[in-house]
Write a structure and sequence with these properties.
Blueprint lengths: L2 H6 L7 H16 L4 E7 L7 H21 L3 E7 L39 H15 L5 E4 H6 L4 H9 L1 H8 L5 H6 L3 E3 L12 E5 L4 E5 L6 E5 L5 E3 L1 H12 L3 E5 L3 H14 L5 E5 L2 E2 L16 H7 L2 H9 L6 E2 L5 H17 L6 H5 L14 H11 L4 H11 L9 H21 L7 H15 L6 H13 L6 H13 L7 H8 L1 H12 L7
Parallel strand pairs: 1-2, 1-9, 2-3, 9-10, 11-12
Antiparallel strand pairs: 4-8, 5-6, 6-7
Helix pairs in contact: 2-3, 6-9, 7-10, 9-10, 12-13, 15-17, 18-19, 18-22, 19-21
Amino acid sequence: MSDTARNTLTEIPKAWPFEEAKKVAARLAASGKTHALFETGYGPSGLPHIGTFGEVARTTWVRNAFTQITGLPSKLLAFSDDMDGLRKVPDNIPNKDMLVPYLGKPLTQIPDPFGSHDSFGAHNNARLRAFLDSFGFEYEFASSSEYYKAGRFDSALVRILECYDPVMAVILPTLGPDRRTTYSPILPIHPHTGIVMQVPMDHIDPAAGTVTWTDPATNESFTTSVKGGACKLQWKADWAMRWYALQVDYEMSGKDLIDSVKLSTRICKVLGGQPPETMTYELFLDQDGQKISKSKGNGLSVEQWLKYAPNESLAQFMYNQPQRAKRLFFDVIPRAVDEYVANLDKLRTQSDPANPVWHIHAGQLPAHAGSPISFAMLLNLASVVNADTPDILWGFIRRYVPGASPETQPLLARLADHAVCYYRDFVLPEKHYREPTVMERAALQDLADTLGALPDSTAETIQNAVFEVGKRHPFPDLRTWFAALYQILLGQQEGPRFGGFVALYGVPETIALIQSTLARQAEPA
């Protein structure tokens, strides 16, 4: 590592990817390595999950920060544990019955229930890779099945045999009494059935690189080589072996794997390796506060998010406070979109590596402009005008931003497209207008009169006028006044700055909206 790189370590921005990158840089400086290996792991027993994207994105940001700090080369390895045996059939796949006869076999040896790939593992790997590619991640994909069969782990597997007793001494105390009697970190593949066998070892031969075991169903004894994919490891031992074999420098994982990280760290040290630097991130929760599960399919899918918002907004959501649990459901989308837009605007005025957008775009200012209109504002506009298509929105957008078009405002065009989809599926079904009280009717009439007398219709002028109207009436506070506007006029519980909305929708149109609302029957006294 160069002196310049070392000096830079004390000057890193106050952003979590740089804090993590600093650990990797210090690790390489101490070891003398000149190339860093970042790894992410993927268990493809279920369909690719949005949490997997989060792990790859976050690791990518740490890797980019590492490059910024040191200038050293690095690689991100996206590793799929596709040689694992299928323990249960996932709930969210078609043709579930066809997988039942293959329980226990490696995922790459099981038919694809979707009928599009050679195996279930290959199908899920392809789904993962297609998604990562769509985001432009730079990574090298690794298949556990391919690595085992190609012999890339052979020497490390022999090392497991050489350290078999110490490895068992680490693992056995973490198991229950019954499991201890049957446990082995070595999982031979049955030569006849192809099932990944969970059986104790009768004999270990490090010199020959073999294990001897007994099939409990037939009482037949087998001697199996640990090389060439004839065996695999239990996943915690497998994780440690992979760190050792590949010399992984950094890997993050979820809070639910804290104990596994500790165990794999100890095993890696037993083998003589140096465990990677790690970070624990909090888990995503669904709308009900339950942990998101690949097999259950609860929470948001990648495809769902991208239907309702641009991909950068998903990255923004993943960047925020990775060590804090966050609910991942449809209601978080609009805020994530507008956070991205706001941070993009800030980055255009000042290049700041502490800005999330700096990391989302790998330190490069994106070519596209920001959006002069927030996503929340577009949603409110779509709600008021009952937008069926983006064209309806563009009639108002052009009046608010003269000369605007999908060509001159590509991000705004994407937001308009997404806003129509989001409005149709989430806002429209939840719209509920309430009638104004007598006091609120007086305030609304005052607002209509005040808007009609304004000398100009800039968003700031309108916002100030709305404030003054609210102060003239006996609302407990101005927040209550604005909440009343959203609930009565827009049929929603909240919304963006009302002045900006009026400027976008139009002052005459807003006055007409107020008058049509007042024409409804007043709330009984």
